[in-house]
Amino acid sequence: MLGSRAPQQVGPYRVEGTLGQGGMGLVLRATDARTGRPVAIKLLLAGRGAGATQRQRFAREARVLVRLRHPGIVEVLDAGEHEGCPYLVLALVDGRSLQDRLAREGPLDPTEAARLVRDVARAVDFVHRAQVLHRDLKPDNVLVGADGAPRLTDFGIARDLAPEASQGLSASGVFLGSPGYWAPEQARGALRALGPATDVHGLGALLYALLVGRPPFEGETLVEVLHRTLEAAPPSPARARPAGLAPVDAALDAVALRCLAKEPAARFPSAEAVARALDAWLLGGPRRAGRVRRARRRALAAAAAAGAVLCAGAV
Predict the structure, then answer these.
(1) CA gap 141, 156 in Å, rounded
(2) Which residue from 59, 76, 98, 223 has the highest number of Cβ atoms inside 10 Å of its Cβ?
(3) CA angle 142, 71, 152 (to 5 degrees)
(4) Is 160 an active-site residue?
(5) Distance (Å, rounded) from C-alpha 245 to C-alpha 102?
(6) 304: Cβ–Cβ under 8 A, 6 or more apart, which residues?
(7) Nearest alpha carbon to residue 155 among 142, 169, 138, 136
(8) Whole-model pTM?
(9) Catalytic residue among 119, 136, 199, 253
């Protein structure tokens, strides 16, 4: 069995270095010896304790990715097995993750953050129409190439909703995803409650992180993160954004907070609806913020008037 050291060759691919390393495997940079094309190889290391469930999830990721041909999703090129360890060959994105950029540069400009999340939302909508849930949307899982376009990656805990797919790889009460970016239904381990609205929450968490520099919910312990995810409203991105940066206006703030609503029904109805809302903000800019503030004032005035009528009726 292969150990934790990166091999020099995986199938017909010459390994040139390590791009990343996780608890169960490696991501390698390699070159296809047949074509000279640079690729990324995701290699599951059996020697690290990968059991039957991990192998099944890895195989499921391969099946899911083969179906998802979209410019906003990292493309799978090949799959195989090396010394008893399964591997996936992916198109190499010559860039870095949004998490790496946040770590190096801090929060993004609101316009760029909105553009990136809009494009990711369109990719997520395609994923949903292919009957797949991603379930782990976060800056680590979005790669941005030299062309500036975001590409969604890491479908390791994706849920295949196709009727013929096996649903036995996850159990209720099991936490899947990333703390801080979880939707409340994920934090409860309520797998039957997961649906497209769960990824809509993920889009809001992604937008929040790009604007603020951290996930919507943090804590010193996992229990604290769970409690805040389930019970606390996320701080407004406009208020949580570090001082000295371009401000987040009310309209963009409202998009993020609607995605992050506790109840799935209160969120945007689809990933495409999130994309349209961000498109509208990008087209409207600061003027849209003024309209949102005026609409809020009108809504508050109407609510106050309705309250006065109810009080009068009660009297």
Answers:
(1) 11
(2) 98
(3) 15
(4) no
(5) 14
(6) none
(7) 136
(8) 0.78
(9) 136
